[in-house]
Amino acid sequence: MKRMIIFCMLFFYSIVVLTAASPRAVKYKQMQRTIRDLETIVKDKDAELLHTPENPVEGCLYTAVTCFKKEIEKLQPVSNQENTMFTKAIRRVRNFTYKDPGKHCESTCESYEKKTPKEFLKNFANLMQ
User: Fold this and answer.
1) In a domain, 40, yes or no
2) Residue 45 lies in a domain
């Protein structure tokens, strides 16, 4: 009987471990949620256009993420009422880390086309998927 209980407990714990999401996946989901929050409170009209990486090649992902993090500093909230939520979201993006693969990418942030803040955030969310 004891063996059966121990076996059932081990089986249950193995299922729990296998179905748990990886920390990396959770981190990317949180970043996507933050970007969606920013889309609703960012100023889009009369705003500065931002360099927006689109479809970066595998070796240039680090450069693209770094570009997004640099350009996101230029975003502005629609109104002062959303300023605290906006500041927290920007801080979360700024603290996001992406491992540098050590490969050198030929494209720079300035080589990407400039787009509106809403398009910029949509492309950033796509990159996080």
Assistant:
1) yes
2) yes
Q: Which helix (H) or strand (E) holds 115?
A: strand 114-115
CATH number at residue 43: 1.20.1250.70
- The dihedral formed by the CA atoms of 32, 52, 64 and 109, expressed in degrees to the nearest 10: -150
Q: What are phi and psi of 36, to 5 degrees?
A: -60, -40
pLDDT in tens, 81-98: 777 888 888 888 888 887
Residue 43 near residue 75, CB atoms below 8 Å: yes
Rounded to whole angstroms, what are the CA distances from 57 to 19, 63, 106, 108? 31, 10, 11, 13
List the domain range (segments joined by +) for residue 45.
20-128
pTM: 0.72
What's the chain's length in residues?
129
